[in-house]
Amino acid sequence: MRLIDLYSDYFANWLSGGNLINQEKISLLGIKPLYDRFVTHRMISKAWYIYSFPVHNNLNITEVIRKEMFKLCPTVKTIVHTYNVPLRMNVNNDVFKRQFHRAEDDYAKYNAVFSQLSQSEQATGHTGYTQDGHKFYITKHQLDRIKDNYDSYNYIYKTATSGGTFVHTYYFIQASAPTKRDMKIYKKELMSLLGSLNVGYKEVVGRIGTYLSNFGPATYIRDDVRRFIPMLMSNENLTEQMPYKTKGLVGGKGLLLGLDAETKLPLMVDFFNSGAAQVIMMLAKSGAGKTFSAFQIALSLIALDIHVSAIDIKGREWRKLLKFVDGIEINMDDENPRFVNTMRLDDFGCTRENSEYYFRMAVRATVNLLSIMVNLKENEGNVTDLETILEQAVLKYFSQNNVDSKNPKTFVNTRRMKYADIIDIVADLATTKSYSAEQRALCAVIRSRCSTFFVTEGRYSKAFRNEITVAEVLRKPLVIYSFNKNADVMLDTMDTLRVFMVQYLDTKKQSIRKEQKLHTAAFYEELQRSNQFGKLVETISHSVTGSRSNNVMIFLLLNAVSVFNNNELNAIKSNITTKIVGKLEDGDIDLLVKEYGCKPIQKQLEKINDKSTNRWQNCFAILYDTGVDVDKAIYRTVVPQYMLEQFKTRDYNENIK
To answer: What are the phi and psi torsion angles at 558 (to 5°)?
Structure first.
């Protein structure tokens, strides 16, 4: 290439403001700097530098710029970055002292004159004369500038004498747009925003190469940068305006949820910084990426040494995580019959202090399990009578096996206890004289319904032969209970029993880890498909309401908010602390706003559910309350490409933008 070709291209682009750029001719091998921008084969980029902030400022201007510019120009990527040169400030030398005193005198003089003016003169400005005959003109704006100058010197002096440090800060805003039109709009909006913030700025023109050489990524040589004006900032100033002071990332700890769609930075929420309960509702219709997002959250939890369990009703989904973490999948379908003995207490490691608590927990769980088997209809008797009979039978069975609730040494006797034996005790109770005719009839119903599950050659003969123990799952960071049920297929009674049993087993693990001051997380998927939803909800409600004391995080994965129309869910509904919501069914937004406290994220929900664009595919609005922090955001789940291929699920849309 001849030298004249190089300069003619440069000159032409300078005259046209960059409009002669032809992206097809750009080299694919690097960045091409031009007069007022630099380009690659895909993007056009411009830069601005800020040389002054307002002296009195309570905003994180960096966060405001990124957040507002994303809203105004979502197709343009905004990067705010700084380069900082340590500076030794000597506030005791004569030069600084003279400047400080002059600033103080100027403010005192102008303020004395201004304070004597009438209200109209203060508002419109005033022309006067000094004692030596010099004319002056004073306005409120001019006085504020003089005061800012004095306040700056005062701040520098106090900060330096108290041990604070200073830097020269080169502060840049860099924007990358896909088209020239997008960049033109962005430039106009940015100039308007910076003007409203009273920020001094200049566009980088005629020295793009210098900018890239000195302040681009991984470069900092400070060669010929005199035309870039730095700001004098203290370490306190710099901290307040750092690009990294943004939602979710302060402190660098917490649970990684995904990528904040506004700041383009990782969204991290510290759910473990308080003793408050943590119950998270993940709500989105099928295909909106709910399970995919749950995968990423589960991996983040495991990375924080928090054990995770998942009740996978669909099956063959959560097993994909086993390629990346240590875990176990327990199949719970008809081909792999397993069961949990809710009466076992020998595996808790109980002490005299907690033995009665765990004893009551085992009794209640066994009563609920037998109630599911009975599946009492409205015209067959009273639910209270049913539970009373079952509780008496269970307590009598424990007594027959010499299990004392106050003596944990006797809990070893629960190892060989069997559900079928309780049915014989119910038969004995039917002869109790104190029972009414209705209660004796209930005993017959219990025997008839429950016996079906324990007949030697019956349909469920294999269901209670292969026990799962807490020892199998206690040390595993990830435990998956897989039921392999097709979508929209209701669980039958045996499925419901299995879900109930593994949920109880999960509760045992949570309790044991709680004694060791360790955290656990549980993901519950599609439990509304059970025909015995109430009993499952009751058990989960105990986990939800006790999540604070049990060190457990509960994640409820739901396809529609209508699930909560069930009155039995009120206990859970009222304890939800965080809402993570994706694409919804029609009408769900209004319901969430009116009944679930989602008014703060109404705009975010409307944006995600805008059917005219695919921009928000696989995005979620989050409103969280950790007990310490309350905030909201829109985030997108982001994982490495090799994980993305493994994580594709039936609940995942591939159109990630």
So the answer is: -130, 150
Q: How far apart are CA 151 and CA 89, in angstroms?
A: 17
Please give the structure tokens belonging to residue 460. Answer: 């469920």
Both tokens assigned to 330: 């327990």
Tally of CA atoms within 13 A in the half-sphere of 531 that contains its CB:
13
DSSP codes joined into one string, 538-559: HHHHHHHHTTTTTTEEEEEEES
Cα(287)–Cα(461) distance, integer angstroms? 38
Q: What digits encode the pLDDT tens for the residues 630-650?
A: 888 899 888 777 777 777 655
Q: Which amino acid is at 243?
A: P
Would you tell me how many other CB atoms lie within 10 Å of the CB of residue 649?
18
Q: How many residues does the chain have?
A: 657
Give the residue among 274, 264, 320 at the shortest CA–CA distance from 294: 320
Side chain identity at residue 283, one-letter code: L
Q: Are 557 and 566 in contact (CB under 8 A)?
A: no
Residues in a beta bridge with 579: 281, 623
pTM: 0.64
CA–CA gap between residue 26 and residue 39 (Å, rounded): 8
Q: Is pLDDT larger for residue 345 or for residue 565?
A: 345
Q: Is the dihedral of CA 58, 60, 64, 65 positive or negative?
A: positive
- Using alpha carbons, list the distances in angstroms from residue 594 to 236, 589, 600: 42, 9, 11
Lowest mean pLDDT of 285-294, 379-388, 450-459, name the range.
450-459
Assess contact for 247 and 257: CB atoms under 8 A: no
C-alpha–C-alpha distance, residues 586 and 210, integer Å:
53
Tokens in use for 568? 């039995």
Distance from CA of residue 623 to its chain's centroid? 8
Largest CA distance in the chain: 118
520-561 pLDDT, tens per residue? Answer: 999 988 766 655 555 555 556 555 554 455 578 889 888 877
d(CA 393, CA 52): 79
Render pLDDT for 438-475 as a digit per residue (tens, 0 to 9). 899 999 999 999 988 887 676 777 888 889 999 899 99
Contact assessment for residue 208 and residue 214, using Cβ atoms and an 8 Å cutoff: no
CA–CA gap between residue 585 and residue 651 (Å, rounded): 15
230 vs 167: CA distance, rounded Å:
9
How many angstroms separate the CA atoms of 425 and 496, rounded?
24
CA distance 44 to 19: 11
Q: Please write down the HEC assignment for all residues of 138-196.
A: ECHHHHHHHHHHHHHHHHHHHHHHCCCCEEEEEEEEEEEECCHHHHHHHHHHHHHHHHH
